[in-house]
Specification:
InterPro entries: DCTN6, Trimer_LpxA-like_sf. This protein is mainly beta. It contains one helix and 21 strands. 9% of the residues lie in helices and 27% in strands.
Length: 235
């Protein structure tokens, strides 16, 4: 009787040699250092802003969300919208006369010494930037339209900076003889800055009475409506 042979046990194939990756090294790789966020001691230390000292006359509305720094005095009926900014350097002061309005994201600063004064019924519209000078910095009834900019000069009465325009010490319309005791150049009364080239022209005062009534009515409307939807800063 023929014996059956048991099935052959398969032999395992010899292991293939593992080739090292060209970028790998025979020595164990050094783990990368995990970047750490800078500690508080390494961050730039900025001095805290000066505490706001606000004095205001009757009929003002100052939003609790207004960003105020330094010494600020407000005449009767001024309106400071939420998210507006008025920043005054330590030891200096800013006075906004009766009926001034500072709208959302507008920034009014005074980094000089002494006091800066803004004339009555001046309006700082949305996102404008105004750097005041000492003394009578801005005359009454001026208008800073949205995203306009003023730096280092004075404004006479009823001046207007149209939307997106800019005026600094190099503007050709400035008058050195109107600068006052501090020798700061001034934009003459009723000057309108307009256009991409920041051109200047003089307003002939046409419709001034109507414009005055409209401005007063708009400010009165703000004083009536804003407190209904915004918290007022504690006096």
């Amino acid at each position: 009787m023929t014996e059956r042979s048991s099935p052959a046990t398969p032999t395992a194939a010899p292991p293939r040699p593992v080739r090292a990756h060209p970028s790998s090294s025979s020595s164990p790789s050094t783990p990368r250092a995990t970047p750490r966020s800078p500690s508080k001691t390494h961050r730039s230390l900025r001095p805290p802003p000066p505490p706001a000292t606000i004095t205001q006359e009757v009929g003002c509305f100052v939003s609790a969300d207004a960003r105020l720094e330094g010494s600020i005095s407000l005449g009767a009926g001024c309106v400071l919208h939420p998210r507006c900014s008025v920043r005054v350097a330590p030891g200096a002061s800013v006075h906004l006369a009766d009926g001034c309005v500072v709208e959302e994201e507008a920034v009014v600063t005074f980094s000089g010494k002494g006091a800066a004064r803004v004339g009555a019924h001046t309006v700082f519209m949305v996102a404008c930037r105004v750097d005041l000078v000492a003394g009578d910095a801005v005359g009454p009834w001026c208008s800073f339209m949205p995203r306009s900019r003023l730096a280092g000069v004075r404004l006479g009465e009823r001046c207007t900076l149209a939307a997106g325009t800019s005026v600094d010490v190099a503007h050709p319309a400035l008058r050195a003889d109107l600068g006052g005791a501090e020798d700061v150049p001034q934009l003459p009364d009723r000057t309108i800055i307009h256009g991409a080239a920041n051109a200047a022209r003089t307003w002939d005062a046409g419709g001034e009475a109507q414009e005055t009534v409209l401005r007063l009515s708009a400010t009165e409307y703000l004083r009536d409506v804003l407190p209904k939807f915004n918290k007022q800063r504690a006096a």
